[in-house]
Amino acid sequence: MPELPEVETIKRGLGKLLPGKCIANVTFDNPKSFPNAPGDVAKFLVGAKIVKVKRRAKVLLIDLDSKYTLVIHLKMTGQLVYVRTRELSLKTEDRRRKTKYSVPTERWGGGHPSDSLTGKLPDKSTRVVFSFADGSKLFFNDQRKFGWVRLLPTDEVPNIDFFKKVGPEPLSSKFTSREFAARLQRRKNTNIKAAILDQSVIAGIGNIYADESLWGAKIHPASLVKNLSIQKLNKLYEEIRYVLRLSIAKGGSTDRNYIDATGKKGSYLSFAKVFRREGQDCPRCGTKIVKIRVAGRGTHICPKCQKA
DNA sequence: CACTTGACCTGTCCGC
DNA sequence: TGCGGACAGGTCAAGT
Hints:
Layout: H1 4-17, E1 23-28, H2 37-45, E2 50-56, E3 59-64, E4 68-73, E5 78-83, H3 93-102, E6 126-132, E7 137-142, E8 148-153, H4 161-165, H5 177-184, H6 192-197, H7 207-216, H8 230-249, E9 290-294, E10 297-301
Antiparallel strand pairs: 1-6, 2-3, 3-4, 4-8, 5-7, 6-7, 9-10
The structure holds a DNA duplex.
């Protein structure tokens, strides 16, 4: 579920919280969540200081001063939540003992309680825990275990298969409608929804923003790319950039379990036009929104605005 | 090579 | 109430 706006929101949150933090310890329960950790954790992770937090496509990158980078993919149910520990006052043995044994971490989540998912961490979905020298922690939670964390030398990150083939950032000022249309031609015999979900065509779009941008451009998701006019593709380009920007401004979409670095939900879905709105009226023409299946995904359309 | 489908997982929801 | 099955969706491997 985390698509570009959600990962961007997490990046911005962690970018304010993590730089300068020194990693004191890393624990993980599920080897698949951190495939190459065992040998490299001690050498290049513990003792390293966080330099910068970045994003490329739906991937989060945390640069360390050890010339290594944590590469994190949240896939569908991944979360990265930062928890500040209760400020310790170590004046007396009593207070130290009380703090140590009773309240390892304070309530997590920021903002208004109704905006956050409440609970204690770690929980049963916690796969990796990064502990920092100041006592704060970063939890990588992932209910379905599709996500992963990898530790790679920073200069090798661009060489992994995913980054070698991934398409341009849709919100980059260098990304033009002309380039968008040109890149779509590699998938000209498939449907437009599959084409924009293809990360090698354009980075960062997932099911939510595919449906929203196709509605905005009045394109049926099953339309073959080769049958779409250049005007339609230009409109789609504009809509993709519009919905991604709007969602970032709203802190992303919380469908089931997305939360940001401080535990807060995103509010984009309350602005969504069709996603998860089957049975409701199309905001443009009033026709009932229907849910169909395209490219193997649940797909939401207005059958009147988006003709096949 | 282009394209489609299934696998990877776990939790939730729906119908019987 | 319990239970089986469908479904959720990002990416990759394997299939056509």
